[in-house]
């Protein structure tokens, strides 16, 4: 993640500033979102030393703990669909969805209520 990338920051800022696409519920909350977006700047997603989770595709890097905890919290919202627990999985079986089948269309289905992939 390149939090300091201007194009990314501009897109996020435009999204959170538009009441048709984002509801912060209070002006204070919206102000906090904007301040945190400014604060993130070049916060690293990974580094090559210290505690954390190894980056699965390149184990010379460790996922930075803030990013690590953010990734896990986001994952917990969908793990039941990907691991096949509780309500079944996206592949209609009890087991996990194979990594190669987790495409952008899967994320669109989960988060955007798009068509089933």
Task: Report what the structure shows.
The longest helix has 14 residues, at 27-40. The radius of gyration is 17 Å and the shape is globular. It has helices at 6-17, 27-40, 65-76, 79-83, 104-112, and strands at residues 46-47, 53-54, 62-63. The chain is mainly alpha-helical and 117 residues long. The model has no long low-confidence stretch (mean pLDDT 76). The chain contains five helices and three strands, in the order ααβββααα. It starts with 5 loop residues before the first helix and ends in a 5-residue tail after the last helix. It has a three-stranded antiparallel beta sheet with strand order 1-3-2.
Largest sheet: 3 strands, antiparallel
Distance between the termini: 26 Å
Percent strand equals 5-15%
What class do helices, strands and sheet pairing give? mainly alpha
Structural shape: globular
Work out the helix count. Answer: 5
* Series of H and E elements: HHEEEHHH
Low-pLDDT parts are: none
Mean pLDDT: 76
Spatially, the strands of the biggest sheet line up as 1-3-2
Compute the CA-based radius of gyration: 17 Å
Helix content: 40-55%
Count every beta strand, where a strand is a DSSP E run of 2 or more residues. Answer: 3
* Oligomeric form: single chain
């Amino acid at each position: 993640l390149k939090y300091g990338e201007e194009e990314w920051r501009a897109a996020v800022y435009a999204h959170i500033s538009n009441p048709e696409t984002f509801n912060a519920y209070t002006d204070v909350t919206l102000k906090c979102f904007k301040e945190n977006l400014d604060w993130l700047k070049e916060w690293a997603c990974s580094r090559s030393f210290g505690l954390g989770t190894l980056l699965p595709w390149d184990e010379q890097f460790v996922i930075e703990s803030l990013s690590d905890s953010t990734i896990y919290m986001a994952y917990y919202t969908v793990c039941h669909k990907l691991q096949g627990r509780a309500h079944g999985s996206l592949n209609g079986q009890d087991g996990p969805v194979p990594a190669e089948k987790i495409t952008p269309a899967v994320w669109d289905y989960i988060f955007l209520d798009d068509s089933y992939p």
